[in-house]
């Protein structure tokens, strides 16, 4: 069902001391494609660094780069705009080969392999594509991943692998997505990591897309549901490391804290 989404995404980084020569890359500009048309958006960066440069990375994500040379103890970027979402407008595309194989954060461990074998062995017609297609399998794996994990903020970080999070059975949306990606690829399905927003208030989110018959289908293992028109895609990659929404380097020593607020309405 098509939707018109209003989105707001605000992130503030506070530093314990002044930093300089802050070079940053943002991947917060939403993807613009047939099923997700960006009707309007504004992106404000503080300290003000002018228009900066907008381009695309090797995964096709929009990137906004810039540099804050002067001393500062905070960095803020605010995105707001309108988007039109309609998954029925998707057009076929090829899945890049690297979405078929394990990436640094989605390596298959013994525990993941045994878990997959248990799921596949317990589902009738798992190996019969006439009765169970790739999307059917992905939905089953999604439900099993959702049931396996306990949503537990603070137990993992951006460097935690799928295997590490899976072994502890604790994590956040990033970990759920990594585990599902690893399992889908093990099943022979191209799969990719998605960073974005979804309807409601809170923080940024992550989910999985699997490829079948030329189309990408979004699946959210954190909520065990399709990532449909209520979701706004910002960027994609093999795993989180390919598409962090914000990344930067600066000169100076300082501890960093982050506050994020998002709101998406239709």
Written description of the protein model:
With 266 residues, the protein is α+β, with helices and mostly antiparallel strands. The chain has 2 domains: 107 residues, Immunoglobulin-like, CATH 2.60.40; 150 residues, C8orf32 fold. It is built from 4 helices and 15 strands. Strands 1, 2, 3, 4, 5, 9, 14 and 15 form an 8-stranded antiparallel β-sheet that branches. Strand 10 and strand 11 form a beta hairpin. The mean pLDDT is 96.
- Number of contiguous helices: 4
For the record, the CATH class of the largest domain is Alpha Beta
Q: Proportion of β residues?
A: 35-45%
* Secondary-structure content class: alpha+beta
Query: End-to-end distance, in Å?
Result: 12 Å
Any idea how many domains? 2
Note poorly predicted spans.
none
CATH architecture of the largest domain: Roll
What coarse outline follows from CA principal-axis ratios?
globular
Radius of gyration: 19 Å
Order of helices and strands: EEEEEHHEHEHEEEEEEEE
* Mean pLDDT rating: 96
Do you know the CATH topology of the largest domain? C8orf32 fold
Largest sheet: 8 strands, antiparallel
Helical percentage: 10-25%
Number of strands: 15
